[in-house]
Design a protein that fits this description.
CATH topology of the largest domain in chain A: Rossmann fold
Strand content of chain B: 5-15%
Number of helices of chain B: 17
Strand content of chain A: 15-25%
CATH architecture of the largest domain in chain B: 3-Layer(aba) Sandwich
Helix content of chain A: 25-40%
Shape of chain B: elongated
CATH architecture of the largest domain in chain A: 3-Layer(aba) Sandwich
Strand order of the largest sheet of chain B: 3-2-1-4-5-6
Number of strands of chain B: 12
CATH superfamily of the largest domain in chain A: Crotonobetainyl-coa:carnitine coa-transferase, domain 1
Structural class of chain B: alpha/beta
Structural class of chain A: alpha/beta
Radius of gyration of chain A: 25 Å
Number of domains of chain B: 2
CATH class of the largest domain in chain B: Alpha Beta
Distance between the termini of chain A: 12 Å
CATH topology of the largest domain in chain B: Rossmann fold
Number of helices of chain A: 17
Oligomer: heterodimer
Largest sheet of chain B: 6 strands, parallel
CATH superfamily of the largest domain in chain B: Crotonobetainyl-coa:carnitine coa-transferase, domain 1
Distance between the termini of chain B: 35 Å
Chain lengths: ~400, ~400
């Protein structure tokens, strides 16, 4: 067997980031993902663009086939029903209510296909006062509490200026839920409906910080590059004015760290003996360490801490990252010539499976590239419904 | 009705955040998780701040629903007990460097020799290969290397990280996907396999759009996700009592509505002599809009006269949207959190009860979420080992040898 989701077919009627990226991941796992676009509508004008197509579309629709269907027309809606009868998974992230209007809500589709795993993604859930409001990454950054714990104490809350993380984060939970439901179904559980809200996903991603708040009633502080839970874990400025990220995350690393930086006496200091104590005495310890890191260049500390087995790393940017041996040897960034988009850089595969064929990247199809092909398959299914699954791969 | 993963047994030897978050999610979906800790306990018990029974709050959150077995796997008797647990498991979750996995004989060939049905998932900071494969990681290191810090702070000033532990928690979530995909595959093949995920790879994967926009065919170097590192720190917009994020409704606001709004909040109409303000609101409302950063001081000056709630009402009225930059107090006070069942109460012997987050997914057929409080260290050693076939005498011997607690 080649891929975990061989033989699974996904009906992907999604927009923007959250839905498309989740179906993309299902495609990487081996599912036959059919992305549905409406006619005459350019998929999103969010810059930057490739020849007029948003990079968001290009990246979030890899590993799929794309068909154009006019779901307001009875004929195309019938084609969609026929296709959905052959599908295992249905993913949508339209505003609550849109699927009902199109006749593609769970009630209707579970009658056509009771084994369907039906996933609805939304910004804030399917009910409640936030439902009418737009919910994309920046709105959720603000609303979910994520900004308030990021930044410096004096500088105010800070947005993450890569306005996609909470979209793709939601996709991660969607993929988990779909896989769990498919597993349950494989053990005789039948299909079901699942809802994933960006708000729930963003809150779950903050589990460690929110736990601190729920336990103490106090808002976790914004600490720049440092964190509430472990000390030292932050950036230190070195003699050459470069920054090194250092994290002592386990008490067993504390003595080797002190030894490696030539300050073995700190390991004997009772104030700093455990992580809990170092948190308590953070304001005494951090200036000592910062002054000490300023006495040698970043390369020196990098070497010393590597030898000692203490977590450390540089602050990298695009050009350093794409040629970094760790990135190259683990295939974490890929680039290749594609017929649709020229020479395309893209992310690597997030999981490696020991008993699967290597996961290959299929660039996003142009809108409607597979309309004829999939329509022909639908016509075959309609002619011989029992053979609906034939041709899926 | 049972959870989607009911009947699945997970043996989890991970510590810290990534692995425990993975097994928390599996347990929320109904899996039974046996947490195997060293006799000194999961290192995350010692994070801050101290909470129930002295354990750190994040530990208590991430280890709900689990049973704890304290075993010293450095000792042969302890390792033997672990191997017997693995033989009964569906999933083995590890966070071992390749060198350490080989030392402990917990590399996949050794695990497969114990059970061909077990799905092993191994989590590393930087991947299984390459010069850093055997180095330990930390959240700040992962965020720095994956260039997340390029989209935070201000150039030339000290680096800023994301306050939450994205490297760890997103990787735990990625591990859940790999594990359940492998379990699904096992339903067909009858065989387990090894799945690996790593933190650097996870964060780089989630930043995929950034890499694509470095490709040759990109039309312009502007927009939303790309040029952000040259911008200053984005604090949203200041109000009298906090911060807000602004958007122009469904992406646009008619020039008339924009003008009505700016008149109402006291922005000098002279701004419209500036062509950046002349179009619809999409160019000037919001930090990610075309001129958002440039015209922000004008908005800030006007909005500081209103409270956050007043700004939200004013923008609603205009057909645009303002969102509060919530802290956790205002977030949990919002009824939307209850609407999606994200705040739960867990019964607990020590505290009576405590508050925990709900599960991130709402399954309509298979319930999910927290069921029981995080375990004390070794709280279930006797129970779990007895179930695995150890006699009372065997367990006493293990404890006497210091191999269990």
């Amino acid at each position: 067997m080649a891929k975990p989701l061989d033989g699974i077919r996904v009906f992907d009627i999604t927009l923007a980031g959250v839905g498309p990226w989740s179906a993309k991941l299902l495609g990487e796992l081996g599912a036959d993902v059919i992305h549905v676009e409406a006619p005459g509508r350019s998929p999103m004008a969010i810059p930057p663009m490739f020849d007029g197509t948003s990079i968001l579309y290009v990246t979030a629709n890899a590993n799929k086939r794309c068909i154009v269907l006019d779901l307001k027309e009875q004929k195309d809606r019938q084609a969609a029903y026929s296709l959905i009868q052959s599908c295992d998974v249905f993913v949508e992230n339209m505003r609550p209510g849109v699927m009902e209007r199109l006749g593609l809500d769970y009630e209707s589709l579970s009658k056509v296909n009771p084994d369907l795993v039906y996933l609805s993604a939304s910004g804030y859930g399917q009910t409640g006062h936030m439902v009418p409001r737009p919910g994309a990454d920046p709105q959720l950054q603000a609303f979910s509490g994520w900004d308030m714990i990021t930044g410096t104490e004096e500088g105010g809350p800070e947005f993450f200026r890569h306005f996609a993380h909470l979209d793709y984060n939601t996709s991660q939970y969607i993929v988990q839920a779909v896989l769990m439901a498919l597993f349950h179904r494989a053990r005789g559980g039948g299909g079901q409906k699942i809802e994933v809200a960006m708000l729930a996903a963003a809150m779950s991603l903050q589990s460690s910080r929110i736990a601190e708040y729920l336990a103490t009633g106090e808002q976790p502080k914004r600490m720049g590059s440092a964190t509430t839970s472990t000390v030292p874990q932050q950036a230190f400025e070195c003699q050459d004015r470069r920054w090194l990220a250092v994290g002592v995350t386990d008490d067993s690393q504390w003595a080797p760290f002190c030894e490696a930086i030539g300050r073995a006496e700190l390991a004997q200091d009772a104030r700093f003996a455990t992580n809990r104590l170092r948190i308590e005495h953070r304001e005494a310890l951090v200036p000592i360490l910062q002054a000490h890191f300023a006495t040698k260049p970043v390369r020196w500390w990098e070497m010393k801490l590597t030898e000692a087995g203490v977590p450390q790393g540089r602050f990298l940017s695009w050009n350093e990252l794409r040629f970094h041996p760790q990135v190259l040897e683990n295939g974490l960034m890929q680039h290749e010539d594609t017929p649709e988009w020229g020479h395309l850089y893209h992310e690597g595969v997030p999981w490696q499976f020991s008993k699967c064929d290597p996961i290959t990247y299929r660039p996003a199809p142009a809108v409607g590239a597979h309309t004829d092909e999939v329509r022909a398959e639908i016509a075959k299914m309609e002619a011989a419904p029992a053979a609906a699954k034939v041709g899926s791969n | 009705m049972a959870g989607a993963l009911a009947g699945i047994v997970v043996v989890d030897i991970t510590q810290g955040l990534a692995g425990p978050y993975c097994s928390m999610l599996l347990s929320d979906a109904g899996a039974e998780v046996i947490k195997v800790e060293p006799p000194s306990g999961d290192t995350a018990r010692g994070y801050g701040p101290a909470y129930r029974g002295g354990d750190a709050a994040p530990f208590v959150e991430l280890n709900r629903n689990k049973r704890s077995v304290a075993l010293d796997i450095e000792r042969p008797e302890g390792m033997d007990a672990l191997r017997r647990l693995i033989a009964t498991a569906d999933v083995l979750l590890t966070d071992l460097s390749p060198a350490r996995a080989a030392d402990l004989h917990l590399d996949y060939p050794s695990v497969e020799a114990i059970s061909t049905r077990v799905v092993q998932c191994n989590i590393t900071p930087f991947g299984e290969f390459g010069p850093m494969a055997n180095q330990p990681g930390a959240e700040i290191v992962i965020q720095a290397m994956a260039e997340y810090t390029e989209s935070l702070g201000t150039m030339g000033e000290p680096p800023v990280r994301l306050g939450t532990d994205v490297g760890n928690l997103n990787t735990g979530g990625q591990a859940v996907q790999g594990i359940v995909a492998a379990l699904f595959m096992r339903e067909r093949t009858g065989e387990g396999q090894l799945v690996t995920v790593n933190m650097l790879g996870t964060l780089m994967h989630l930043r995929g759009m950034m890499w694509a926009s470095h490709s040759e065919g990109v039309d312009d170097w502007w927009g939303f996700h790309q040029d952000t590192y040259i911008k200053p720190a984005d604090h949203g917009y200041e109000t009298k009592d906090g911060y807000v994020f602004l958007t122009a409704g469904q992406g646009t606001l008619s020039p008339e509505s924009l003008r009505a709004l700016t008149d109402k909040i006291g922005i000098d109409p002279k701004v419209y002599e500036d062509p950046r303000w002349a179009g619809n609101g999409a160019g000037v409302i919001g930090g990610s809009s075309r001129y958002g950063y440039e015209v922000k001081p004008t908005w800030n000056e006007a909005l500081r006269k209103f409270t956050t709630q007043e700004v939200i009402a004013l923008f609603d009225e205009a057909g645009a949207n303002a969102f509060p930059v919530n802290n956790y107090e205002t977030l949990f006070a919002d009824p939307q959190v209850q609407e999606i069942q994200m705040l739960q109460e867990l019964p607990d012997a020590t505290l009576g009860s405590y508050r925990a987050l709900g599960a991130p997914w709402l399954f309509k057929q298979t319930p999910a979420g927290p069921r029981s409080a995080a375990p004390g260290l070794g709280e279930h050693t006797d129970e779990v080992l007895t179930q695995a076939g150890f006699s009372a005498g065997d367990i006493a011997k293990l404890k006497a040898a210091g191999a269990a607690r």
